[in-house]
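Student: Please help interpret what follows.
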Amino acid sequence: MANTDILYSLVGFNNRLNKIVRDSDFTNHLALTLFTSNGFVYSLPNSIADRFCLYILPEIHQKIKWLDLESLSMERILLAADYPNLYGISLYNIQTETAISRF
């Protein structure tokens, strides 16, 4: 189970679990994508992305150092919070023109 699955499932469950899943070692690298067994990468479903963008990312944003993002959800996730310690992003399914215009 990926750390994003655990975050999605356990954040808000109770105070003890909240403290555990918000630990820096656990939240420093988040893959906010879905990887299939045949190597394809997809965006998170809207319901999951909504919870991350509205509740989870704003609470842990200062601990995130690396994000794995799919191009369709990239802008939404990057705008969900300020990431003062972010030093790397892995981008999937992004067109060259999009990358140039965004960065």
Remarks:
- The chain has a mean pLDDT of 84.
- The longest helix spans residues 46-60.
- The longest strand covers residues 29-35.
- The radius of gyration is 14 Å.
